[in-house]
Amino acid sequence: xxxxxxxxxxxxxxxxxxxxxxxxxxxxxxxxxxxxxxxxxxxxxxxxxxxxxxxxxxxxxxxxxxxxxxxxxxxxxxxxxxxxxxxxxxxxxxxxxxxxxxxxxxxxxxxxxxxxxxxxxxxxxxxxxxxxxxxxxxxxxxxxxxxxxxxxxxxxxxxxxxxxxxxxxxxxxxxxxxxxxxxxxxxxxxxxxxxxxxxxxxxxxxxxxxxxxxxxxxxxxxxxxxxxxxxxxxxxxxxxxxxxxxxxxxxxxxxxxxxxxxxxxxxxxxxxxxxxxxxxxxxxxxxxxxxxxxxxxxxxxxxxxxxxxxxxxxxxxxxxxxxxxxxxxxxxxxxxxxxxxxxxxxxxxxxxxxxxxxxxxxxxxxxxxxxxxxxxxxxxxxxxxxxxxxxxxxxxxxxxxxxxxxxxxxxxxxxxxxxxxxxxxxxxxxxxxxxxxxxxxxxxxxxxxxxxxxxxxxxxxxxxxxxxxxxxxxxxxxxxxxxxxxxxxxxxxxxxxxxxxxxxxxxxxxxxxxxxxxxxxxxxxxxxxxxxxxxxxxxxxxxxxxxxxxxxxxxxxxxxxxxxxxxxxxxxxxxxxxxxxxxxxxxxxxxxxxxxxxxxxxxxxxxxxxxxxxxxxxxxxxxxxxxxxxxxxxxxxxxxxxx
Length: 643
What we know:
The chain is an alpha+beta fold. Helices cover 34% and strands 16% of the residues. It has four domains: 1-28, no CATH class; 36-388, Glycosyltransferase, CATH 1.50.10; 436-531, Immunoglobulin-like, CATH 2.60.40; 536-641, no CATH class. The strands form four sheets. Strands 17, 18, 19, 20, 21, 22, 23, 24 and 25 form a nine-stranded mixed sheet that branches. A seven-stranded antiparallel sheet has the order 5-8-9-10-16-12-13, with no helix packed on it. Strands 4-6-7-11-15-14 form a six-stranded mixed sheet, with no helix packed on it.
């Protein structure tokens, strides 16, 4: 059994010896499904005014099978066990005036960092709750529940809970410099709500409600003008978490609070369908739009629906890089269709991709359409996969600068915003693979997974090694013949998609929603095989006609530019590549020659390796790989045309 030593701790395929102790027995086994009476995904609790046309299968009914995503999930599970509760609770205890002898966490959780608590009391709880829903890992649930109890002991009589003192909000009120206290408050509240929804923790709900009470009281005396000034400082998805609390409790005061935390200065141009994103901080604002989506679902407010849809189209179509990620250097947006002019070491912040995926699920739920899930797939494979290394360490940015490289944080000393959203992402990889409506089940993503579809008493097993394998097979297990419609996404990149039923070719109707429809009475042992032929594409870069990017199916292909000068400590740099130590390289150049449409004749697939490509007949030839498979070498997303 091979072991790898990195950063002073030992990894292998079954246990971890580190400061957090040995992994509990049964970590690698899938435990019993979470059974929480009366609870479903937060997206679909009571008090909804707008029902989703298609709903995600509960996470407890879906399990990953062996494959790339399963490996991501299990590495992340190890990471969650690595962090000791005493270290996570340390700053909360000190803030509450309680003793703590724990070694503090570093980075953005350090005792002198004003964002402390965002991961320790927020993202971490969300990730544990989501991992429990995804795996049934009872030991992890108990660990997270113990942390909930420790934090509850730190909550003040007035409901305030934080890893920094309340006087941070005095600075906010007085417009003095302070680093985003409500951003962190949102994360802590959201973590506790996830612990209630997915783990049934009454203590977590009580803590969240008391926190909400404190926040409502804090903003109550502010005029709209005063609140607008306060909202110039990042405040995360306070509107979303208040709406979600209303969805759980039905208490109107939380619905009112969701509206109160609406950021009007940001929403007003979006409601008027005006793209005023240039110059704004990207991930400060995406969670607010997720909040607008929740507001629409809970109230039927069409204005919120319009904001969410217009924002999604604006970002996805006009403010994104070729791999799908958004945000330029310094985490901002530029003018629309100018990505080619803003290639940077700090581009494509990982938090942005996480939150755009959340938003996309809402839009798909309202109106199921393959276009939403094509985008979801693009982000999943290009800027979510490949941002976790073999040690489960996570990234901040996915660089777009030519000659950039990926950097990964430290498990104890980084604790960046993207560490937190990454830990959540890899804990909930099951949440979008399968959706259902009253008569159908949707196969949205081509991932090795199985679903226990309780509505039809049917188990579906999807077998695939996608994207290395250009096909997927869905096996049906039914105790008795059962009629339903199977809907399989027909991605835009696979015009030659083909379907066979029990080994025989069939003509599957493609609906206006972009899904192949197979309706029949299914019986035990039926199987559907779907061929997903991928081909090379050369894609234009909006606003930069001299540039191009390359794709194979949903995968962005990048030019591999070598490891010369690239040291281990430069990869372990955490917050992004230091281009002063290793300056950018010139864009790789290409001559297209004669080609048909978007099919690049100057790229050939390597017959000797999976998903490896070579340029041909160029002044300098390059090897190309999917971005998600490039972890320790320099690369370029974009290419420059030779005149």
